[in-house]
Amino acid sequence: MRVGFSKDIHKLVKGRKLILGGIIIPSEFGEEAHSDGDVLLHAIGEAMLGALALGDLGTHFPDNDPKYKDIDSSKLIVEIMSMINSKHYVINNVDAFISLEAPKLKGYIKDIQSNVARLLRVHTNKVSIKAGTNEKMGPVGEGKAIEAYAIISLKKKLLVR
To answer: CA-CA distance, 95 to 154, in Å (whole number)?
Structure first.
């Protein structure tokens, strides 16, 4: 069993889509980033890399590489899943938290959970997605940023000989 943890934070700006777990959330503001800015998938992906001591997202997908400009973060998760598979691990479970003042995410959590489970190739009962506000404190609470945290556990595949 291996465990990884990560967090990601992005500034919120007008004119960008708000994307969480690969799902577009209707909002006046979206994440400012080199990629699509999906803080949830970034936190999950980096936790996956961390679980196997493979470094961070910036090492594998540098923000100064034009091929990652505006890339769909789901594609990064697919690449990280290949790395996990090559090391003979599978996802055991993921627990994630999104901190955002507005919009409220209650109506989108199931869709986000389903899409993350699909990307990780696991049942939805292995993916926990939670959301909350920052009670109007700090950049997240002031509506200037969005933050996500993720912890993931991996287990070794049973190899049949």
So the answer is: 12
